[in-house]
Amino acid sequence: MSDKSIIIAPSILAADLSRLQEEVETVEKYADWLQIDVMDGHFVPNLSFGAPVIKNLKTALPLDIHLMVSNPAERIQEFLDIGAANITFHAEAVQKTEERKALIAKIHDGGATAGIAINPETSLDNVGDVLEDIDLLLVMSVHPGFGGQKFIEHVLSDVKTARSVRADLMIQMDGGIDDTTALQCIEAGANNLVSGSFIFNAEDRRIAIESLRPSS
Ligand code: DX5
Prior knowledge:
By secondary structure, the chain is of the alpha/beta class. It is about 25% helix and about 20% strand. The protein is globular, with a radius of gyration of 16 Å. The protein binds D-xylitol-5-phosphate.
């Protein structure tokens, strides 16, 4: 019996985007969330998709919007309008505390949970100003922009620290997560794992998803 206390969120960036609806249907029975990597080609070098594409997806999975964009304030409403369950913006894109708090409030007012993400080079201290306001902390284990990269281990120390500071926090990790690195993430205190290429490149996507959960 696998442990459902860990949220597994396949990242659609790694899916065959020419058949996105079908691809989502191959994972939605086994996954808990669906992660949508929104990239603007400015905050990260890659350009992905926005709400006009995602609003056409039919899925019961909660949509987890990861805004890898320079100006998240411009994107939040369109994802609230399509029923996003969680919206995460990057600390590196919004430096001022009052701006961070305003975005968190806007996301909450729109009925979604609010997350802030830190890149591997950003210290956990950088988000100390909103650590009590957020519902989710995303600790990136790759430099954002592309799937299929190698897991960066040093970020696990920030996960451990965040877990020790807020026992109730949803701590998500994203980047290079497979059946080996998932265990390290969970041991460090993460309870929400995003995985793209490991799941979508797998022979059996159900088995791949289940292999990310600790067997209880
Ligand atoms: C990277 C994205 C990740 C990525 C994960 O910028 O934020 O969600 O798609 O892909 P894998 O699991 O292949 O590293």
